[in-house]
Amino acid sequence: MTVTARTGTAGDALVWLNGTYLGAQGDGAATYKVPAGLTEPGKPAVLAILVRNMGQYEDWSADGRSKGGRGLADVAVPGAGTVQWRIQGAVGGPDPADPVRGLYNNGGLYGERKGWHLPGAPTASWATTTALKSDRPGVRWYSTVVDLNLARDTDTAVGLRIEDASGRAAKYRVQIFVNGWNTGQYVNNVGPQDEFVIPSGFLKARGANTIALAITAEQPGVGPDAVRLVDRGTVLGGVDGGQNASPGYHTVLGGEVPAGKG
Questions:
Q1: Could you write out the DSSP letters of every residue in 36-47?
Q2: At residue 180, does pLDDT exceed 70?
Q3: What is the model's pTM?
Q4: How far apart are CA 205 and CA 4, in angstroms?
Q5: Domains of the chain and CATH, by start
Q6: Where's the Beta-galactosidase jelly roll domain (predicted)?
Q7: Distances (CA, A) of 6 to 29, 76, 171
Q8: Residue 257 pLDDT greater than 70, yes or no
Q9: Spatial contact of 212 and 142, defined as CB atoms under 8 Å apart
């Protein structure tokens, strides 16, 4: 079968059939061979496609590229029968569940819909690990809490660095959330950025900060070697703007409109 996805440059789409991973692709069309015995004549089959687009092209030319659609454009499935599609996007659609961070902060990953990127998410039952390599293709979530104690009367630029010695060979991407704020996306096989400056309003300069990573692997055994916070420079002075309002898991999913700073 042939899958056509519109992801923009560096986007990807991962394809499963009846729970078996068939592979991944970038923007455009790709054909997948269905393994023998994976489907049976006359019985339902479930095709699942995860599309990660990279947003619209910037509108700096008159070629119309900025108006191109994004998402799953076409699927050609051989054989006869009824085909029904279901689509899953961000919680609330045009009415985001999180009115503070807004419509464009979150996507449609299952973990985003479940609030795993938010402070106070119920992660106590998650397994503890020091490794960030996935044993199979797909999306895996990681979360940690970091206590900061940045010096007062200084302006410190804090960055999140992703380290990988694979030389861009490993195909995976990392969606970065800091206290629920979408801070950036690292794409290992594209690059070149491996260090992301965290806006000061996302951080609690003196206190606990929740960092969540959604790692989407196109291959088994890939992922960062390490992820760490780094000091990208500290200078005396500056204005302490404080932390943005950062409502947590219970506030966002409970439907309350947050007031003040979280």
A1: TTSS-TTS---E
A2: yes
A3: 0.91
A4: 45
A5: 2-76 (2.60.120.260), 110-253 (2.60.120.260)
A6: 3-56, 110-217
A7: 9, 15, 19
A8: no
A9: yes
